[in-house]
Amino acid sequence: MGKVVFAFIIVHNMILVLFSCRYGILTARTSRMETDFNTGMDTTKEKQPIVPCGLIAWSIFNDTYKFVSKNKNLTVNRKDIAWGSDRRFRFGSDVYPKNFQRRDLIGGGHLNESLPLRQQEDLIVWMRTAALPTFRKLYGKIEVDLEAKDEIEIVIENNYNTYMFGGTKKLVLSTTTLMGGRNPFVGTAYLFIGSLSLPLGDPSYLSWNKNPGGMIK
Ligand SMILES: *[C@@H]1O[C@H](CO)[C@@H](O)[C@H](O)[C@H]1NC(C)=O
Ligand SMILES: *[C@@H]1O[C@H](CO)[C@@H](O)[C@H](O)[C@H]1NC(C)=O
Ligand SMILES: *[C@@H]1O[C@H](CO)[C@@H](O)[C@H](O)[C@H]1NC(C)=O
């Protein structure tokens, strides 16, 4: 077994659309940011700009997973999960979240307002647009040597509401990064099938539809 196990989330039946929001806002300097916004998901009711704006950011995934093996908590590294080019060119190092999730309907996770967007890698990963309604996103890396047949217990905080759009979500563990290609999902669908036979066990047993919260063993 390789040293790094990648944990992916797969969301079915969700279309991430770019909507009334320009990427420019993510990299713009603060002064420009104040003026360069649209209506809709870009502003609060008081017309204050929302940063990051748009439906995709708003819908950022917010389940959390903890992994336990042999009674030890496995560290999940959630850094270096985003593409370097996304981080450097599309997300400002001097742009901080502002007014995020302050509208009536909360679409997903919250962001730490004291970290610039460039350091919020789960956001960067989430904002890489997906071409298909089923997509996968890297959740984190488990940098621990696991042996074949190791049992992993996963503690799920089931926050993310996929029922409202009739979607499902899955968690997949894989030793393959799937990060190399331009479009990881299309390019590596067969690798995903390959990962099903990993010695970690059958990931379908990690998938869930309707059990809110709790533990999957
Ligand atoms: C693992 O983390 C949980 C909280 O998430 C904590 O309650 C527990 O004591 C930790 N276990 C070990 C073995 O560190
Ligand atoms: C998580 O996202 C859901 C929407 O899917 C939202 O209703 C909920 O308030 C969010 N919870 C947290 C803790 O961010
Ligand atoms: C937000 O980020 C700051 C700076 O890294 C950190 O000190 C703080 O604990 C974080 N807050 C939360 C709620 O994670």
UniProtKB/TrEMBL annotation:
GO terms for cellular component: endoplasmic reticulum; Golgi apparatus; plasma membrane. Keywords: Membrane, Transmembrane, Transmembrane helix. The keyword Transmembrane applies. InterPro entries: CDC50/LEM3_fam. The keyword Membrane applies. The chain crosses the membrane at residues 6-25. Its main location: membrane. Belongs to the CDC50/LEM3 family. This is Uncharacterized protein.
